[in-house]
Amino acid sequence: MTAVAGGVRALARIVARQDGRGGTSLPVLDGEGPLALRRTRSSGAEARVVVVGAMSGPLGGDHFTVEADVEAGARLHVGSAAATIALPGQAKGEARYDVRLSVADGGELHWLPEQLISARGSDLHVTTRVDVGASGRLVLREEQVLGRVGEEPGRLSSRIRVGVAGRVVLDQELACGPGAPGGWDGPAGLGGCRAVGQLVVVRPEFADAPVAARVLGDHAAVLPLAGPAALVSAVAADALRLRGLLDEALEALDSLG
Fold first, then answer.
1. Angstrom distance (rounded) from CA 76 to CA 72
2. Which of 47, 58, 152, 219 has the fewest beta carbons closer than 10 A?
3. Residues 6+ apart with CB under 8 A from 165
4. Which residue from 123, 111, 114, 23 is spatially nearest to 67, judged by alpha carbons?
5. Strand pairing partners for 91?
6. Are 57 and 83 in contact (CB under 8 A)?
7. For residues 203-213, average pLDDT
8. Residue by residue, what is the 3-state secondary structure of 156-224?
9. For residue 130, what are the β-bridge partners?
10. Stretch 182-186: mean pLDDT, rounded?
């Protein structure tokens, strides 16, 4: 971790590797400052890691980076102990939270953190970049909540980019809150909802049997991507309802396999 005048710089890194005994080892599990990593009880061949927020943040001027590399044949599940809250802090300027993920051929990653909450006065830019091998598997969930209860949101911008076998299948950006382009909260945007989420599922079998586009209820949709992948987009009044929509969508996709 590095503390500078403009904020804190912190890096967390995970490497998952097949251990040769039917399980997954973690030769690299290293977190700094606000990004503490804890290995929890494994489930079968899958290693499990929890990201624990050891400090408040990200605050204004902070730059956090999380990297996870899943090697061939390894299986990794990453969650977080609690929601991440973007706060204004004392330093001026935008905070950044970067996520860099890679899944090799035959590897599998479940990236399922808790919600990101954009508190009033905060300014956070999140980028998520994922590279998946041709026979890799991925379940990635992102949930963003605009403001705490009864609170106006801060400014939140995010970009998620997913590539499979070197081909980009998703490149999506979202901006919300003060200073965001007009209409973000209107009928063509979030429609007054305060929770928004995405679920990206990559599975080799989707190449031969693409997911059919469909609507789930009034506030979620499943869309096939240009590759062995599917995207679920959802909005809801609050975090609890959003999680329910995304869980329902994942169950529906699981039933296809």
1. 11
2. 152
3. 132, 133, 134, 227
4. 111
5. none
6. no
7. 92
8. EEEEEEEEECCEEEEEEEEEECCCCCCCCCCCCCCCCCCEEEEEEEECHHHHCCCCCCEEECCCEEEEE
9. 101, 162
10. 69
What is the signed CA dihedral for 82, 240, 160, 148, rounded to 10 degrees? -70
Residue 6 pLDDT exceeds 90:
no
**How many helices, marked H, and strands, marked E, lie in the chain?**
1, 19
pLDDT at 219 over 60: yes
CA-to-CA dists, residue 228 to 55, 82, 114, 140, 204, angstroms = 38, 31, 26, 14, 6
**Which is nearest to 33 in space by CA: 56, 17, 49?**
56
DSSP 139: E
Q: What SS3 class is residue 120?
A: coil
Residues in contact with 248: Cβ distance below 8 Å, sequence separation at least 6, in sequence order: 216, 220
Which whole number is the average pLDDT over 172-193?
77
User: 144: which DSSP letter?
Assistant: E
187: which residues sit within 8 A by CB, 6+ positions away? Answer: none
Find tokens 């969650």 and name the residue. Answer: 79
Residue 59's beta-bridge partner residues? Answer: none
